[in-house]
What does this fold into?
Amino acid sequence: MARKRIASTRSLHKHRARLAGQIVSGVLSSSASYVGTVVRLLAKGQLTALARYVRVQGESLHEPYNLNEDPGLLPDPERSLRAHRNNLWHAAYRGNFTDAVSFFAQADSLEDSAIRAQGLEPGDLRLLGGSITASIGHSAVGLAARARLSAFGQNPTDRYLLLSGGAANVEYLRFWSRYFPLVETSAAESRAIEHAFWPMMEGFHTVRTNDGSIDVRTIDSQTAIQWEAEGREPLLRLEEQDFERGYAPLAKFGLARSDWFVCLHIRQSPVDKPGYARNAAVESYIPAINSITEAGGFVMRIGADHTTPLPTQDRVIDLAHHKPYEPWLDVFSIAASRFMIATTSGPMHVAPTFGVPVLATNQTAIGTAGYLAQSLVLPKRMQLGDAAPLNQRQMLASLLGFSGSYIQDLTDEQGRSGYHWVDNSAQEIKAGVQEMLAGWQAQESDKQAAWRQGLIEAGNPGSSRIAQSFLDLNPDLL
It folds into this structure.
């Protein structure tokens, strides 16, 4: 049986390698080829026929598979592209943003050359697949940036197609179908198309604009700020049927449509080693939760079932430990909430697409953090031993202020290493929640303006506003 699986996997690799090779060698017009048929259906916009065709062709595909198991089967251009993608991932992971952007540009150039070799232009058709849809946060940021660019007339791409297979949350993708035609495929079908049409696939880390490719964080922040300044409506919205569908299963928890609630997401990953930046402890959020319930609201907690359960109490709904898991309720809990409390993780970026403000707690990578409209942030500080935590200038003077990962090996401006993250305290989180409950202040304080200016000078196009309460509790931060 094992030998059969190995043989099947090898056959699958060879099949997909041949498909990719057909693009590189220009065999797009063959009426008998899978590639030729798919290209014609894409060009004609026959999405239903395309979905049916790839579904039939995909019946022989086996899941799971790993394209990297035998990179020698991949054509040289695609192998080079993957090398660039791996290099940029590691550069960004270590906080070296400048190197990462350089690698992004090289990868995009390679894709464009492969497309033009077929007599096409890169903007004729772009496919949105796993690099964006496999993460709900990547989906939110990547799709929002492209939708805003199109609305501003700054998008060089004529047409997109959005592949549903392998998406982190298909329910969320369906809201985007008003901007990007959605092709319903299985995970295997999507990966087959992505592998065959790799030069047409949009990556997450860069976005094509009329001014060239720009890193996604920068263009997302720039377009979000412009969108807000022009007073435009949120990109996505819940319709009446969505509210009915959302509140119905929550009635058993005592939540009525007349009630208000706050969505809570605390990232806790079991695969991360101690010291990882984006995780946080549930216990530090309990006083903040109590302040919401005491004000008459509910707390709707979303997340994975491996996370620490919340204490059982009235007006607190822990959907992370509610069976069966319903992806739709994750989307609804974010989209219908008064505001969201989040850590640096994917769901945080879903909220602004529905116009929901965010209290971004334990925020990392302050030097590249994106813009969230009418939201407040509580940055996660860093410390060396028992010394005082770094202030904003010290963080931004080295890679420490641009990292959202492990920092013990990164050095500060004086060459010292061994730093560790300092989580937001329960007092800081509760004060941030009370500031959100008090409502948005149109005018920022002098200290909030100073924080923003420090980020701009470090190259951040516009981070969200820092909570005044956090500045009051951390007078040494500036």
Notes: The domain at 240-473 is CATH 3.40.50.2000 (Rossmann fold). Confidence is low (pLDDT under 50) at residues 1-35, 54-75. Residues 2-25 form the longest helix (24 residues).
